[in-house]
Design goal:
Layout lengths: L7 H13 L7 H4 L7 E5 L2 E4 L4 E4 L2 H4 L8 H11 L13 H12 L5 E7 L2 H17 L7 E5 L8 H5 L4 H4 L9 E4 L11 H19 L3 E6 L3 E2 L5 E2 L2 H13 L3 E5 L23 E4 L11 E6 H5 L21 H16 L2 H16 L8 E7 L2 E6 L6 H11 L2 E2 L2 E2 L2 E4 L7 H19 L1
Parallel strand pairs: 3-15, 5-6, 5-7, 7-10, 10-11
Antiparallel strand pairs: 1-2, 2-3, 4-12, 8-9, 11-12, 13-14, 14-17, 16-17
Helix pairs in contact: 4-12, 5-12, 9-10, 13-15, 14-15
């Protein structure tokens, strides 16, 4: 886009952005030349920029939007809550939206999860879960300072979350200041021709060996269930999760599942662990809880974990952890409305059908010379393209933007993750544009 094509308002906003802002996960040396897009409004499955151009939201505004933008029922719930209670601390007080939301989350949770601890975003909830795991063991007389995590894992960008991450590009810089942890291989990195179940078994054997050596010092194993999203939608065999659960039980280690990206229907089930019937000790969720409206996350815990923190105040067993805006009523109201719509509209079942249709529509792309692999579970889709420039994935997404679809790459993996409620015509538009953009760049 040339400067002449930009309106005076857009030019002014971009100039002010470049003068003052520091964006997350953004190479600012290239930011200006990448034609910063100023998003001005949204409705349904679409975003509009400050010059009035419309774009299909092909990545659910970073994997959070569920029913679309400006959903009347969620809008109304937030407005009604604003007229009643904007905010109250959750430290030593409670409120109805927080209570109702906890009941709704637990009603659809894996078996055995009975307690809800709120946080603000996925990484904050991961931090809480990590501390819960350590403290619950310590308060039962077990000093277990180690965590086990998976290569290519991603759990957020706060220090504890980084400590259990396995993506060197993001995490290597901070290695000297991380918590002590142990890493096993990635179950989703399958060699050419290798059965997925065989790869899962190999990594489970590695984990079993590690726990035999150091299990009495490990408080928790943390995994992303079935899809390692930030690593490029790497999928693994469900037997891996089943095996992790069995090994954790054998060694009295807690199992933490990070469902921030995979939860709330993204994989075609409410939770990814539902595909294999695994019940974790701690489940971390975020992103889609509020339907993409407001920042909220949670840790769902078993009663056994919760009970480790009980005792008189003088015993010092309290979980001394929390944030100022924990369980903000506006966020809770949005989440209650969102979860209600999931049930009323059968959105999770619809998402499963959307995922199947994505598989059908993208099947032809696998025959392109420039497409290395397509990985998908439910609506979570990664199309890996051959590198033809320094930033091939970004080039594909820039072309898609020219054609009216917002995508964001993970390296050279082009991600498709539409809102769960997307209809067939909009899904056709998404895949057709992705197809055209890939052909334009790598074919």
């Amino acid at each position: 886009m040339t400067d002449a094509q930009l309106t005076a308002r857009t030019r002014d906003l971009v100039a002010r952005d470049l003068a003052h802002l520091w964006h997350p996960f953004t190479a600012h040396s290239a930011w200006a030349s990448d034609d910063p897009l100023v998003i001005d409004r949204a409705e349904g499955m679409y975003l509009w920029d400050s010059d009035g151009r419309r774009y299909l939201d092909g990545v659910s505004s970073l994997w959070v939007t569920v029913h679309g933008h400006r959903v009347p029922e969620i809008d109304a719930a937030v407005r009604a809550q604003l007229d009643r209670l904007d905010h109250s601390t959750f430290l030593g007080l409670t409120h109805e939206p927080g209570i109702v939301l906890a009941e709704a989350l637990l009603a659809g949770a894996p078996a055995g999860l009975t307690r809800v601890f709120y946080a603000g975003d996925g990484a904050a909830a991961v931090e809480a879960a990590l501390k819960m795991a350590y403290q619950s063991k310590a308060q039962r007389g077990q000093q277990r300072p180690l965590y086990v995590h998976v290569a290519e894992g991603y759990h957020g960008d706060t220090l504890g979350a980084v400590s259990v991450g396995g993506m060197e590009l993001f995490h290597e810089t901070y290695r000297p200041i991380m918590l002590e942890s142990r890493m096993v291989s990635c179950p989703g990195l399958v060699a050419a021709g290798q059965p997925r179940a065989e790869r899962a078994a190999a990594v489970l054997a590695e984990l079993a060996s590690l726990l035999e050596r150091e299990g009495d010092r490990v408080c928790a194993v943390i995994v992303e269930p079935l899809v390692q999203a930030a690593a490029g939608m790497l999928t693994h065999d469900g037997a891996f999760l089943v095996g992790v659960r069995e090994l954790c039980d054998r060694h009295d280690v807690l199992m933490i599942v990070d469902e921030v990206a995979t939860g709330v229907g993204r994989t075609g089930r409410m939770w990814a662990v539902d595909h294999v019937g695994v019940a974790p000790d701690l489940l971390v969720c975020g992103k889609g809880i509020t339907g993409g409206y407001l920042p909220l996350s949670a840790v769902l815990a078993t009663e056994a974990v919760y009970e480790a923190f009980l005792g008189p105040p003088s015993a010092g067993r309290t979980f001394f952890h929390g944030h100022t805006y924990t369980a903000n009523p506006l966020c809770c109201a949005a989440a209650i409305a969102n979860l209600g719509l999931l049930v009323e509209r059968g959105t999770v079942a619809h998402a499963a059908r959307v995922g199947e249709r994505i598989g059908e529509l993208t099947a032809g792309l696998a025959t392109y010379d420039g497409v290395t692999e397509i990985r998908r579970l439910g609506t979570m889709t990664g199309i890996e393209v051959a590198s033809v420039t320094d930033r091939t994935g970004m080039a594909v997404c820039r072309k898609a933007r020219e054609l009216g679809v917002i995508l964001r790459p993970l390296g050279d993996v082009v991600v498709l993750m539409p809102p769960l409620a997307i209809d067939d015509a909009q899904l056709d538009e998404l895949v057709q544009v992705a197809d055209a953009a890939i052909r334009a760049v790598v074919q």
